[in-house]
Amino acid sequence: MEVAEIRKVAKARPFKAFEIRVENGERYLIPHPENIFITNQLLVTVDEQGQSILIAPEAVSTIRLVEQAQKVNA
Q1: pTM to 2 decimals?
Q2: Which helix (H) or strand (E) holds 29?
Q3: Strand, coil or helix: 59
Q4: CA of 66: how far to CAs of 26, 32, 74, in Å?
Q5: Which of 35, 49, 69, 72 has most Cβ atoms within 10 angstroms of its Cβ?
Q6: Distance (Å, rounded) from C-alpha 30 to C-alpha 33?
Q7: How far apart are CA 74 and CA 58, in angstroms?
Q8: Per-residue pLDDT reduced to its tens digit, 24-72
Q9: What are the extents of the domains in the chain?
Q10: Cβ contacts of 20 within 8 Å, gap of 6 or more
Q11: Into which CATH architecture does domain 3-73 fall?
């Protein structure tokens, strides 16, 4: 996926939580804009255990906005 597309979602105001799904099927919730760092070569976030996750932008298969109700009930 193009870095510009990822940045567009991450910088949207008002911010809406989103989920990144990568090629291997793993998913990462981005609940707040401070939970992701984006460069031209790399995305950095953390998993539920607080471990750093490094993702190549080309490995991102989809980005999906997450509704508040889904986050509460998940």
Answers
A1: 0.85
A2: strand 27-30
A3: helix
A4: 16, 11, 11
A5: 35
A6: 7
A7: 28
A8: 999 999 999 999 999 999 999 998 899 999 999 999 999 999 985 454 4
A9: 3-73
A10: 6, 27, 28, 30, 43, 45, 55, 60, 62, 63
A11: Roll (2.30)
